[in-house]
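Posted in: Structural Biology > Protein-Ligand Complexes

Title: Requesting predicted complex, pseudouridine-5'-monophosphate in pocket

I'd be grateful if someone could produce the 3D structure tokens for the following input. Sequence and ligand are given below.
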Amino acid sequence: MKEYLELSPAVKAALMSGEPVVALESTIISHGMPYPQNVETALRVEETVREAGAVPATICVIKGKLKAGLTADEIEYLGKTGPTVTKASRRDLPVLVARGADGATTVATTMIIAHLAGIQVFATGGIGGVHRGAETTMDISADLEELGRTPVLVVCAGAKAILDLGLTLEYLETKGVPVIGYGTEELPAFYTRTSGFKVDYRLDTPEELAAAFRAQQEMGLGGGMLVTNPIPEEYSMDPVRINAAIDQAIADSLRLGIHGKETTPYLLARVKELTGGDSLDANIQLVLNNARLAARTAAALSS
Ligand code: PSU
Ligand code: MN
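-- Reply #1 --
Done. Output follows.
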């Protein structure tokens, strides 16, 4: 394993001494936001994790190495390269590593590499899920499968309504993944604090999150835990406006025949276009909010 994994000195030192570490994904940098906001946000997210008392470990694949902990230059490279870098899910890792290639890691792959490195907590924006129309396309993100098998606590802002949220919850239930609302009984829908769907449990403190995750792992249940943290009220978007943009983006993707791994990046970019950049501001704020909660949870887990 050692020959594949490469930890930054800061991440290695923190893990050796049992300090809290928070994993961060890189597809959100390359495919989730435009340059240069993606690089600015990635650096701000790292700083937010540090301010909250943990060590950030941004994860990606560079020249075939599974990296946990990037330099500012590596983040700049990834952000500038943008969507031309391979979006790497679980199925992409073998060939990328064998070829010595680069890959931006999705939630699934970030969980895999975090777990290999010994990192238990991971903060992101939104997860992939069951797409609308999946009953015919079978487009279900590998993120859900990973949550079912890899023991990492993932803090997100729920899932975007580009997905079928009801089916996404059903799938997570089948896979045995606890879906926790942080301070809420309702599943947040990324840009908005509510979705009309209930989470499995509401927990209110990082200590409660840490206790539940610890119990899950100590009982040998394995698999991940999904913590959904609503976007702060002051940054949440008008649901009518955002849902109209999402419906339009989905209609456009169907008309253009977008499918497979292109679907999520296309929808994210189109929603941003249709909301004139407002969705990007909300996106940045919710990621910072998740980074803070993840850092506090990692601290509670390591104490
Ligand atoms: N949803 C978002 N922002 C994102 C993604 C999803 O709101 O950046 C990215 C994440 O990296 C996630 C991936 O893991 O898209 C899911 O892609 P797919 O649906 O192709 O599995
Ligand atoms: Mn898919």
